[in-house]
Amino acid sequence: MMRLPEFSYLAPVSVGDAVKLMADHGPxxxxxxxxxxxxxxxxxxxxxxTVLVGLRGIRxxxxxxxxxxxxxxxxxxxxxxxxxxxxxxxxxxxxLATAAGLVSSPQLRNMGTLGGNVCVDTRCNYYxxxxxxxxxxxxxxxxxxxxxxxxxxxxxCWAVSSSDTAPMLWSLGAQVRLVGPSGERIIPISALxxxxxxxxxxxxxxxxxxxxxxxxxxxxxxxxxxxxxxxxFDFPILGVAVALRIDGGTVRGAAITLGAVxxxxxxxxxxxxxxxxxxLTPELIDLVADAAFKPGKPLDNTDLTHPYRKxxxxxxxxRALHSLAHGQPSLAHGQPTLAHGQPTLAHGQPSLAxxxxxxxxxxxx
Length: 365
Ligand SMILES: Cc1cc2nc3c(=O)[nH]c(=O)nc-3n(C[C@H](O)[C@H](O)[C@H](O)COP(=O)(O)OP(=O)(O)OC[C@H]3O[C@@H](n4cnc5c(N)ncnc54)[C@H](O)[C@@H]3O)c2cc1C
Ligand code: SF4
Fold this sequence. Notes:
Layout: E1 8-10, H1 15-25, E2 29-32, H2 38-43, E3 51-54, E4 64-67, E5 71-75, H3 80-85, H4 87-92, H5 94-101, H6 106-111, H7 114-118, H8 131-136, H9 165-171, E6 175-180, E7 183-188, H10 189-192, E8 208-214, E9 220-227, E10 238-247, E11 250-259, E12 266-267, H11 269-275, H12 282-293, H13 306-326, E13 362-363
Parallel strand pairs: 1-3, 2-3
Antiparallel strand pairs: 4-5, 5-8, 6-7, 6-8, 9-10, 10-11, 11-12, 11-13
Flavin-adenine dinucleotide binds at residues 30-38, 40, 55, 76, 80, 103-104, 108, 111-113, 115-117, 119-120, 162-164, 208-209, 233-236.
C-alpha cells in the first residue's frame, strides 16, 4: 500500500494569504485544491512537498459569476461536479459541461476542481508508476532520472497533457486569472500551456490560478468527445474539443483543439479555417477531419497504441462536426470508451454550447 509522506497542511481563507504562505515557504511548498491528482502523485513520490497550501477554504475562488451573454467567470476552486451540472454552463457552454462531467469518477469530480484540472500534471506510462517501479527502470528525466525512456535520444520530456477541460477551454477562447507575489495577470489559456512534459505550465510557482474567464457564448455551439479504454474513470487518450459559430447554416467561427496528443492541448487552426464561410456538408466534414488529423502526434507513452490513437483523431473530429451539424444532444457523461461503438446518449445533455473564444482560432467577422 502506498502511503502519503509527512507534510504540513496550511489552510488560508484568502487569495492574498495563500500567495503569502507560498512565498514564505518557497520551493518546498505546493498548492493543493481537491488533491485528486496531487495526493496520488505524492504517494508515488513524483512530488515531495513538505508544505501544502490548501485552497479549499478560499470562498472567493468558488462559484460561477456573470452570464453567458456577457461572459462567465468560474472560480478555479469550483468542483467539476458543480461545473458539469451548472445550468447555464450546460446549456450555453455544453462542451465544457461535458468535459468536466467526463473527468475520472463521480467521487473524484466531487473533490476535484476546475483549476486543478487545468493545472493537472502531464502523464506517461513510465512516470505514473510507484517509486519502486520507477526505480527498477532507473527513473526518467521527469522525476529522479536523466533520460527519456520513451525517446532516449531526446533532450525533452514528452509526457502527455491529459486534462479533459483544457482543450475545451482552449476552443472556447477562455482566459485565466493568475495572482502571485507581483500582482495579477489575465492571459489566454493558450498562453498558460507549454509544449514540455515537465514545465508544461507558464504559471510561476508562487502564482494561484484564481479564475477561468469565458467570453460571451452568443451564436456558439460546442462539443467535447473523449476516447478512453474504460468509461468509468480513465484519463483521456484523445480529447476532441470543437466550438463553432453558425449563422444561417454557415460557419462563421471555428476552433478545434485536440487533447492527449502532445504535452499541451494541440490546436488545429488549418482544419478550423476550412470550415469558416462554409456550410457543414459531409464532404467538408471529411476534409476537415483529414486536416485535423495532421497536428496530432501521439507517442507510445499512454494507453492503447499510438497509431490507433492517431487514427481516431479523424474519426472523432468527424463525429463532433456531424453532431454539431445536426444539433444532436451532447454525448456528455456517457460517451463511448473505444471508437468501435457508436456514440451513446447518456444523460441527454444538450450538445449545443455557445462559447465565444476570445483568442479563437479562426473567425469570419
Ligand atoms: C483514478 C483517477 C482518474 C482520473 N481521471 C481523470 C480524467 O479522466 N481526466 C482528467 O482530466 N483528470 C483525471 N484525473 C485527475 C484529477 O482527478 C483531475 O484532473 C482533477 O480535476 C484535479 O483537480 P484537483 O482539484 O483535485 O487538483 P489537485 O490534485 O489539488 O492539484 C493538481 C495540480 O494543480 C495544482 N493546482 C490546483 N489548483 C490550483 C490553483 N487554483 N492554482 C494553482 N495551482 C493549482 C496543484 O498544485 C497540483 O499541481 C484522475 C485522477 C485519478 C486519481
Ligand atoms: S516522456 Fe520520457 S521523460 Fe517524460 S515522463 Fe515519459 S519517459 Fe519520462
